Amino acid sequence: MRYLFRRPNANQFSDLKTEIPDLESKLGAPAADLRRLFEVPVSKTQSVVYQFFTTQSGKAWAWTCPSVELVAESEPEFYALTDRMKIPRSQLSHLPHP
User: Fold this and answer.
1) What is the extent of the structural domain holding 36?
2) Which parts of the chain have pLDDT scores under 50?
3) Residue 12's pLDDT is what?
4) How many domains does the chain contain in total?
5) Which end of the chain is more exposed for a tag (fewer CB within 10 A), N or C?
């Protein structure tokens, strides 16, 4: 299963620094039209993929992480990932609950 969800604070990375050590150096300097994906394995069958893009504000470029993809082989593993990421079940109302 794959599920893409929006991060509430796309420009805030403090919560991601524990998942992706040396985040700033791995991202590099922001510039036009850049994209970076970081896959964080949780188990053999589960992973979290952080998607970074650059955005422009005035003349300056900055990194943003507007969305995260959850990847799991089964429903129980998927719901375990949603619990790990603290996604409220109310946001998953369109999916069948276990």
Assistant:
1) 2-87
2) none
3) 92
4) 1
5) C
